[in-house]
Amino acid sequence: MARIVSLILVTVLIGGCSSATAGSATRAAPVPSPSAASSSTADAGLVDIGAGLQGPSGVVATVFATGLDHVGAFAFDDDDRLWVATAGYDDDGTDAVYLVAPAGASPVKVIDGLHTPLGLVWSDDVLYVASAGGVDAYRGLVDGTFAAHSRILTLPSGVGEVNGLVMSSAGRLYLGVSAPCDACTPTTELAAAVVSFLPDGSDLRVEAGGIRAPVGLTFYPGTSDLFVTMNQRDDLGDATPGDWLAVVRSGQVWGFPACYGQEGSACADVPTPVAVLDAHAAVSGVAIVTGQLGAAVGSAAIVAEWATGAVLSVGLAKTGDAYAGTAAPFITGLTNPVPVAVAPDGTLLVGDWGTGTIYRITVR
Questions:
Q1: What pLDDT is stored for residue 326 in this prediction?
Q2: Angle at 110 (CA atoms; ends 108, 111), nearest 5 degrees
Q3: pLDDT tens across 80-135, in order?
Q4: What torsion, rounded to 10 degrees, do the Cα atoms 361, 286, 146, 95 define?
Q5: What integer is the mean pLDDT of 242-250?
Q6: What is the DSSP letter of 291?
Q7: Which of 9, 108, 173, 277 fits as disulfide partner to 243, beta carbons 3.0 to 4.6 Å?
Q8: What pLDDT score does 35 carry?
Q9: Alpha carbon of 62 to those of 38, 45, 121, 190, 342: distances in Å?
């Protein structure tokens, strides 16, 4: 989380959002300047929805849990219980993973001594934790304690922050790995990339490269379409682009550091994002809803922006293998939202890194 926070120390926020078409298409024109995402709450038609938040009139917010400093990642086990990783600003080895079951219960620390865990996945009774340097597997949970754990994937020096983690329907884990810099060319192909590997850590592949910071990862339900949030460069002054939501496919190269959405040859063969979000937003978690939040929300990517304190809704339409999205403010009143997830019961959970609160969003 230190890299996400450091974005804000370098620059002042706020741009906005617009839309584009994603998939295998290449960009023929520059990405539009952000505009919509920075609309005011009133302009966006948001109202009080409870728990101090604002959102569309068709949903209600309640507090799911409190007392979790620096909420960084969510996962649900086979018993539909929520697990939460905390990831502080300083990588000092005091981060942890907690069990929160049921709603309203006090978080119970199960794993401690972690370093910026930003990815959690439960699969086949194994908890996978992505943190600084790689991915660990925890096995044999009995009475709140894991019997064993091992590092299944060790990343080389030269990579940046280790981010979101997701399991595909084919049984491969997908991981986002940032560049170690704002605008340099990484020294390893495993940086600024989405990689995948088997649950034992073997068969490591680079699925897509040239992505400054792939942070949140999720698959569109029932498909192999991988949605990824991308933090963009922050060193470009007035030319600083908005962060991106994109569908990432195997073999793609997204152009970092030369391409950041501008017109010209640097972006000529770069895929287009689904949507352009706010500039300097430190975009983080992403979840896909397909009607669980009502017809007004419909099928949408729910995207958290750490820096703006907002959660956006990116309405999705698909033509062939390409998605088009239009972003708009969805939930405001947060401090620094990071993880978002659709719970097994169909409700949406949003974790506020800044306050340690987890909110539940349901249909009114």
A1: 87
A2: 135
A3: 999 999 999 889 999 999 999 999 999 999 999 999 999 999 999 999 999 999 99
A4: -90
A5: 98
A6: S
A7: 277
A8: 37
A9: 25, 20, 25, 40, 15
Tens of pLDDT, residues 195-214: 999 999 999 999 999 999 99
Q: What average pLDDT does the segment 42-49 reach?
A: 84
Nearest alpha carbon to residue 286 among 349, 344, 232, 228: 228
Cα 92 from chain centre: 22
The Cα 86–Cα 98 span in angstroms is 8
pLDDT tens digits, residue range 219-243? 999 999 999 999 999 999 988 999 9
For residue 316, what is the enclosing H or E element? strand 310-319
The residues facing 247 across adjacent strands are 227
* Helical spans, DSSP H, in the chain: 2-10
Residue 135 CA from chain centroid, whole number: 17
Rounded CA-CA distance 58/46 in Å is 10
User: What's the token pair of residue 244?
Assistant: 């991106």
| Residue 245: closest CA among 294, 207, 284, 205 | 284
Please give the pLDDT value at position 44: 76
Going by the DSSP 8-state scheme, the letter that residue 332 receives in this structure is B
* Distance in angstroms (rounded) separating the CA atoms of residues 150 and 178: 23
Q: How far apart are the first and last CA of the chain?
A: 33
Separation between Cα atoms, residue 137 and residue 66, nearest integer Å: 26
pLDDT (tens digit, 9 = 90+) per residue, 16-44?
A: 333 333 333 333 333 333 333 544 555 57
Report the pLDDT value the prediction gives residue 41, as an integer from 0 to 100: 56
CB contact at 8 A, 300 and 327: no
pLDDT at 26: 32
Compute the distance between CA of residue 140 and CA of residue 134 in angstroms, rounded to an integer. Answer: 21
Distance from C-alpha of 309 to C-alpha of 225, rounded to nearest angstrom? 27
What does 75-137 look like in DSSP terms, one character per residue?
Answer: EE-TT--EEEEE--SS-SS-EEEEEE-STTPPPEEEEEEES---EEEEETTEEEEEETTEEEE
Residue 362, H or E segment:
strand 357-363
- Nearest CA to 153 out of 186, 119, 124 is that of 119
